[in-house]
Write a structure and sequence with these properties.
The protein is an alpha/beta fold. The chain is about 30% helix and about 15% strand. Strands 2-1-3-4 form a four-stranded mixed β-sheet, with helices on one face.
């Protein structure tokens, strides 16, 4: 719509858009984005040690696998022993000591003296048999021994 001849004669200027408030909003948005931007280092600036840069690189140690000794009740007063890492089942506590010593690295085995040994008992075994298994493991030279209920039998 064009301005009428009367508005030109009366000295009024035609309608204009006020850009001041729009410039203020754009400036506030600019300030907001500058303040909230996360500046990171360029990829080429980050230092990294390549395998050839590190002297005496050693392989990480293998994960520690616990030795599980199962003590279960057999009859009224008997017990039965099995060891997960051994193909031979011990018949007595003396056999348990000998087999665990054979698994020890000092005797050609793969396990260190601080390797965890878990003595797993079922709910019917006599406490004395669990204690005897603990003592046999100590005699074999292991230092990290703990008790654990067999799977499905504990709380």
């Amino acid at each position: 719509m064009s301005a009428s001849p009367q508005s030109r004669k009366s000295g009024r200027s035609p309608m204009q858009l006020n850009l001041t408030s729009m410039i203020d909003v754009v400036f506030l948005l600019l300030v907001y984005f500058v303040l909230t931007a996360a500046f990171t280092e360029a990829e080429g600036v980050i230092t990294a040690n390549m395998p050839g840069d590190v002297p005496d690189t050693k392989e990480p140690p293998p994960p520690v696998q616990p030795i599980r000794v199962h003590v279960s009740a057999q009859g009224q007063t008997g017990y039965r022993l099995t060891i997960d890492k051994s193909p031979v089942a011990p018949i007595s506590m003396g056999d348990l000591t000998r087999i665990l010593q054979g698994l020890h690295e000092d005797h050609g085995g793969y396990f260190a003296k601080d390797n965890p040994v878990l003595i797993q008992t079922d709910g019917r075994v006599r406490w004395q048999h669990a204690v005897n298994a603990f003592n046999a493991t100590l005699r074999a030279g292991y230092t990290s021994i703990s008790f654990q209920p067999q799977a499905g039998l504990g709380p």
